[in-house]
Design brief:
This protein has 351 residues and is of the alpha+beta class. Helices cover 40% and strands 15% of the residues. The protein has 13 helices and seven strands. β5 and β6 form a beta hairpin. α2 runs antiparallel to α8, α8 crosses α11 and α9 crosses α10.
């Protein structure tokens, strides 16, 4: 536990440091809760550098909550393409729609934000503190790392118990007079100074009271190791003249609401079970064109790409039996469809 005077000193030094070094970002120039909300959703599992172009394009297309609520989910997902974690976009869309009955008025308290689909404690605390100066501390990956090192927290941070303990520490350290800036400052500290691999301790505004400064800060926080699974998938590209076969969104789509090339799972070496059974009956096996790698959470995927150029006879016979959302489209029209990341990689590499 730190004394009250020490806490005030550290709060002031953290804010002074933040005012000096903070990055000039579009969502820091406003207290518009819609923009802050959107930025926090987009920043989940995503770096600021990657997120910024999407943030600006999204705001140009959807400048307010009503425009999101009244949009088709596919229009929203198309703008989200490449940002990943598409459940964020679906929840954001659903949450905006849920506000229609209240004339699209946004909540003003963290507890109210938590009632919206997809809004967790981190997002609720960030919006409420930044927009309304509510004294609720955020706890994201950056803040967990800063707190674990500052307090020399030696338990694994990936447990519910550890999260509760770190949240308590974050609450105690909260600056009650500058809540939003305090939260942004401690997140900025984790992003710029107290980084995962190479913490810049000499330039840290909290260094004089950091309990791990004389240890090896890089050993903290303690986290669970990710266990990866190696899998092989097949992707089939069927072409006929200037058209190509796409799988429409369905219940078993790799990413819901998105188009993709037909997928297969490996039964045995060189043998594939295509998710759409129609494709298991091609008159001869397509030749392998190449492969690429992709990762989804804990899966490391080796994707084998097969291209099959159809003649008139095979095209006519196959088209008669197409089922379950397989559609022919012109290759020039691919850009008009909301296509998942794996299929976009394949288009860039092989088409």
């Amino acid at each position: 536990m730190m004394t009250a005077s020490t806490r005030v000193t550290l709060q002031n030094e953290l804010l002074q440091w933040y005012h000096t070094v903070k990055r000039d970002l579009p969502f820091r120039r406003t207290k518009n809760p819609y923009m802050i909300w959107l930025s926090e959703v987009m920043l989940q599992q995503t770096t600021i550098k990657s997120m910024l172009p999407y943030f600006e394009r999204f705001l140009n297309r959807f400048p307010d909550i009503k425009s999101v609520a009244e949009s088709d989910i596919n229009d929203l997902l198309k703008l989200w393409q490449g940002l990943g974690y598409y459940s964020r976009a679906r929840n954001f869309h659903k949450a905006c729609q849920s506000l229609a009955d209240n004339n699209y008025q946004l909540p003003t308290q963290a507890s109210q934000w938590l009632e919206l689909p997809g809004v967790g404690s981190y997002t609720a605390h960030a919006i409420a503190s930044i927009c309304y100066n509510e004294p609720v501390a955020v706890l994201d990956g950056n803040v967990k790392r800063v707190l674990a090192r500052f307090f020399s927290f030696k338990d694994c941070i990936d447990t519910n118990k550890a999260t509760q303990e770190l949240q308590k520490l974050a609450n105690e350290f909260m600056n009650p007079h500058h809540c939003g800036e305090h939260n942004q400052a401690i997140m900025e500290l984790g992003s710029l100074i107290c980084t995962p691999k190479n913490p810049n301790c000499p330039n840290c505004p909290l260094q004089n009271f950091c309990k791990s400064k004389n240890e090896n800060p890089k050993t903290l926080p303690i986290t669970k190791k990710m266990l990866y699974i190696d899998v092989s998938w097949g992707v089939l590209i069927l072409r006929y003249k200037n058209t190509i076969l796409l799988q429409s969104p369905h219940d078993k789509s790799l990413i819901r609401d998105m188009y993709e090339f037909p997928l297969a799972y490996q039964k045995n070496a060189g043998e594939w079970d295509w998710s759409n059974q129609t494709l298991n009956n091609l008159p001869h096996k397509p030749s392998k064109t190449g492969s690429l790698r992709h990762a989804i959470t804990n899966k490391r995927i080796l994707i084998h790409v097969y291209i099959y150029n159809l003649d008139d006879k095979i095209y006519k016979n196959l088209t008669k039996t197409l089922t379950n959302g397989l559609i022919w489209i012109y290759e020039d029209d691919l850009g008009q469809f909301t296509i998942n990341t794996i299929s976009k990689k394949i288009i860039k590499r092989f088409l």
